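User: Study the shape:
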Amino acid sequence: MENTITKRQLLFVAGRKIAQLAGKLFFAATFILMALLVFFLLQSRLAGGVPTVAGYQLYIVLSGSMSPAFETGSIVLVRQLEPALVQVNDIIAYYDPERQDTITTHRVVEILPTQPLRFVTRGDANDANDTVPVFADNLVGRVAFSLPYLGYLFSFVNTGAGILFLIIVPSLLMIASELRKLMSYVAVHESVKKGGGV
């Protein structure tokens, strides 16, 4: 019977430690995510341009034309490159020839050997090639990889409600949690001093 109780106690202590570790990991992940969101938000607001990290530009996918390579709401990281380095099958980001203020990400299906170079593109989910080839001057870069659905979070954080719920409220909760821990440590220290301890 004693062994059974001891095993239960050990399991309980182990479970508590695992729960504490999971809580700390969640806290750290939340903190890192909030820091990244604040960084990207400030960068795009202050610079007035596309958020950039380690030489990659971040874009939010707004349509499903590249499904299944990446879905609506994904973030694609685009690396600039020389047009001459583009190859067939690369997914490129470019200023749309028909709407110059729009950046599109489609796959290169053919490279036209004209001067300057032009790229025939098509979305993976589309049945036909894009109607107008992309001039090399319109090239933004090649898509390096994508992060599924994270774009929804980045879009939300650019709103007033997003800043409140994803940055301000969690920050206040973390500050309150740390203050509570600090007050607890002070209370323990005071009780040890009153009790004649060190």
The radius of gyration is 26 Å. The chain has two domains: 2-49+153-179, 52-148. The longest helix spans residues 2-47. The chain has a mean pLDDT of 80.
